Amino acid sequence: MLFKILGKEEFCSLVEIILQSNEIIAPKRVGTNAGGEPIHQFLPVHSFEEMDLNYKTTEYSAKTYFLPYRENLCTFNFDGGRWQQEIAYRIQPRAIIGLHSHDIHALLKLDKVFIRGRFPSPYYVSRRENTFIVGLDHMPLEDEFSRSMGTHIATHGFDLFLTDLGDRYFVAVDSDRAFNLLHRVDTREVADDDTRAYLEVRRKIRDGFKTHINVHSLPNLLDLEFTSEVWGKWGEKCLSCGSCAMVCPTCYCYGVTEEVTMDFKQATKIKQLYSCNLLDFARVAGGHNFRPDGETRLKYRYYHQHRGFMEDYDEPKCVGCNRCGRVCLAGIDPAAVIKDLYEENL
Amino acid sequence: MCALPFRAYDVRQESEMLQLLDFNRQLRLKPVAKVFPAQITNVIRLTEMEKLFHLRILDKVDRERFTFLPGQFVMIEVPGYGEVPISISSSTSNKGFIELCIRKAGSVTNALHRAQRGAMVGIRGPFGTYFPLERMKGQSILLIAGGLGLAPLRAPIYHVTENRADFKNVHILYGTKSPDQLLFDYQYESWRRIDDVDMQIIVEEPNDSWNGPVGLITKLLGDLDVTPNETYAIVCGPPVMFKFVCQQLSQMGIPMDQMFVSLERRMHCGMGKCCRCNVGATYTCTDGPVFDYWSVINLKEAI
Question: Which fold is adopted by the domain B15-127?
Answer without folding.
Answer: Elongation Factor Tu (Ef-tu); domain 3 (2.40.30)
